[in-house]
Amino acid sequence: MFKALKEKLFSARKKLEHSIEVNTPTQNEKPQDISRAEQIHPQQEVETPAPEQVKKASPKITDKIVSFVRDREFIISEKDVNDILDELEMGLLESDVAFSVTEAILARIKADLSGSKRKIGTSVDSIVRNALSDALLGVLGEGVDICAFIREHERPVKILFTG
Q1: Inside any domain, residue 119
Q2: What is the DSSP string of 103-156?
Q3: Number of domains in the chain
Q4: Angle at Cα 82 formed by Cα 80 and Cα 83, nearest 5°?
Q5: Does residue 31 have a cis peptide bond before it, meaning omega lies within 30 degrees of 0?
Q6: Average pLDDT score, the chain
Q7: Biggest CA pair distance of the chain
Q8: pTM, whole model, 2 decimals?
Q9: Residue burial 49-81, b: 16+ Cβ < 10 Å; e: rest
């Protein structure tokens, strides 16, 4: 059971890496979509709406190009990861992972990867691996400190191991 789950996670990680690498712009692309005003005043502040109106919007093409030219970064779009996350969802459900846990893992990975920026020299493998490990650790939680549990409860403490 765990071998199949491990293989599906590895497969999803490789597909995410490939998707992110394929969909990043090349250095030969020219930033033609940047307006004249953005070229003259790239650091100009824009008035932001109230906090309740702020939503995480997908980055526009101009934002991607400005980020690429100025910061030497790529912005990972949501559509780069959606198809692979659907496959990962099916793989997790086929491996008998609970639906709520699957949804939590996918939501965390999507939040970590979508809209995030990666420097040109940064390894895609490390970004995807960190997103997967953060999602899994977030779902598993902190766990139980057995020593503290034994100290706090009346003796004899009953512990049951299953698996």
Answers
A1: yes
A2: HHHHHHHHHHHTT-EEETTS-HHHHHHHHHHHHHHHHH-S---HHHHHHHSPSS
A3: 1
A4: 95
A5: no
A6: 71
A7: 76
A8: 0.52
A9: eeeeeeeeeebeeeebbbebeeeebbbbbeebb
Which residues is 4 bridged to in the sheet? Answer: none
Q: What six digits make up the tokens of 93?
A: 């459900």
> Does the residue 160 lie in any domain?
no
Q: 46 vs 61, which has greater pLDDT?
A: 61
Does 10 reside within a domain?
Answer: yes
d(CA 71, CA 142): 36
83 lies in which domain range? 2-152
- Provide the CB-side half-sphere exposure for 16 (13 A, CA): 32
Half-sphere exposure of 12 toward its Cβ, with a 13 Å CA cutoff? 27
Residue 136 belongs to some domain of the structure: yes
Give residue-wise pLDDT tens across range 143-158.
788 899 899 999 999 8
Q: What is the pLDDT of residue 136?
A: 87
| CA-angle at 15, arms to 11 and 62, nearest 5° | 155
Q: Alpha carbon of 117 to those of 5, 22, 64, 127: distances in Å? A: 28, 15, 9, 10
What amino acid occupies position 72? R
Paired tokens of 86: 């659907």
* CATH classification at residue 16: 1.20.120.140
